[in-house]
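Minutes, project check-in
Item: structure for the 97-residue chain
Input as provided by the requester:
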Amino acid sequence: MIHRPCSPLIFPAAPDVRSLDELESNISPEVQGHESETEDQRQNRDRKNKKRQGRLHQARQCKEAWTKFEFDLAEYEKKKAEHEDEDRHAIGRGRTR
């Protein structure tokens, strides 16, 4: 019987994302300025909008990380099942001979 070396199965690492992270849908849209706003009001609005954009970006990254993890986990489970099936077939063939 020829034993094929198989690559070791490596369990995918879960992303370092907290469950408290915000979802994109929970972040309000940017606030638009008005004609009579002062320079301080404009700077505060711009600062808030930049923070909001950062939270949106982080929320997207977290979602992408979890999506990738779920895909990698599904691939891992599929390969694990294939390896187990190959082992079962190899053991079954060894017993019949």
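Outcome recorded: The first helix runs from residue 39 to 96.
No further action items on this chain.
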